[in-house]
Specification:
3 domains
């Protein structure tokens, strides 16, 4: 992985290059970021730059033996630790899932997130963790002699998922790592790390890219895509290219998203709990990524409805006639008093589904809470 292969984050790349060129390399790096940002890719690119035998001021060469082996994830001094499932009896839990990790990284490159890892793990509804045995694995790797002038890296993905025993053991290893050894941690929730572990790390914060930068990336990747689809993906991405790309890949599912959204609105107006239960089951069967995208579509639907509440009509180029019709049906229902809470309910649902909570249960619970929220206004509308 070379820096040039990672889109954006130019200031972070410059900081990493400066570290390498100055020789002032921290032994414990922490990328603080939101899920979907390219922390793992940046860490690998930095490690490749350190070990490249023909690097220039901007990047590793990409062709020397070290670069080729790091790119293929076969370099003997590059190790990964990540949360896994159903591995309590394994001698080395991370190694048990190395093929899944290896395949995901090679396929996705910089563009993966926690949901992709759950899918690669075939985690079902299990919550992945980093076991204490992985700390023993790290200790074993650090105990081995490394060639002079070379670097060894331990990349820890989601260290906040370490068990308490694993955190305590890792702390001891971080206090005095051997010369030439580098910890690269990638965390979405640094507040969950032990303060003593966090204090050993040099933190690098990744921030969202600008909407303009994300849009330009999408235009390069999807030269035949409509501007409307690109703008919609950018708006839902929160400045994270991985999310924008997933939106583009699922853009063909918009008619299905609309049908799910309309079914929910119809069930809300008719107060049909059984229909909501069936809708939750049907949506959950389509998979985590589809459900998340569908919920984001529903957020957009409520946003359109609120826009119709505060402005004249719903003449919006982003909306189809069918979407405008649903928005008008919600006039007087989705108001300033309810729209923020509706968004919060959906965002919580997305958060829990990304965290691998049982999707059907989350969806049905969210639909019932939306019913409680919106029913008073629906009844008032029906009485007029």
């Amino acid at each position: 992985m070379q820096f040039r292969e990672i889109e954006g984050y130019e200031s972070v790349k410059a900081d990493l290059r400066h570290m390498a060129q100055s020789g002032r390399i921290p032994h414990n790096l922490l990328f603080e970021m939101e899920d979907g940002m390219p922390g793992v890719a940046l860490g690998i690119a930095f490690f490749q730059y350190l070990n490249c035998t023909q690097r220039d001021e901007e990047d590793s060469c990409g062709v020397c033996p070290n670069c080729r082996r790091i790119r293929s994830l076969t370099y003997p001094e590059l190790f990964f630790v990540y949360p896994v499932v159903k591995a309590a009896d394994a001698v080395n839990p991370s190694e048990l899932y190395f093929e899944a990790w290896h395949s995901m990284l090679l396929e996705k490159g910089e563009l993966f997130d926690h949901s992709d890892w759950l899918e690669a793990l075939q985690a079902g509804n299990s919550q992945p963790i980093i076991y204490a045995k992985d700390a023993a694995f790290i200790e074993d790797k650090l105990s081995r002699t490394i060639s002079a002038g070379s670097w060894r890296a331990i990349v820890i993905y989601e260290p906040e998922r370490m068990s308490k025993d694993a955190s305590n053991k890792l702390l001891k290893l971080m206090e005095e790592p051997p010369q030439g050894s580098l910890f690269i941690s990638v965390s979405f929730h640094t507040e969950r790390l032990l303060p003593t572990v966090l204090s050993r790390m040099q933190r690098i914060e990744l921030l969202p890219e600008s909407p303009l930068a994300v849009a330009e990336s999408l235009r390069r990747r999807y030269p035949n895509a409509s501007e409307a689809s690109i703008e919609r993906a950018v708006r839902r991405s929160d400045g994270i290219l991985t999310r924008a790309v997933k939106q583009m890949e699922l853009s063909g599912s918009a008619p299905e998203f609309f049908l799910s959204y309309k079914s929910l609105i119809d069930a809300l107006f008719q107060r049909k709990v059984a229909v909501m239960k069936q809708l939750a089951d049907t949506m959950a069967a389509k998979g985590r990524e589809w459900v998340i995208a569908a919920l984001e579509y529903m957020e957009e639907g409520f946003r359109y409805a609120f826009r119709s509440e505060v402005s004249e009509g719903t003449d919006d180029a982003e909306m189809t006639r069918e979407e405008q019709s649903v928005a008008l049906s919600l006039k007087g229902v989705v108001t300033a008093d309810t729209v923020a809470e509706a968004f919060e309910l959906i965002e919580k649902a997305i958060y829990h589904i990304k965290g691998n909570v049982f999707t059907k249960v989350v969806l049905f619970d969210t639909f019932m809470k939306l019913t409680s929220l919106l029913t008073p206004a629906i009844k008032m509308k029906q009485l007029r």
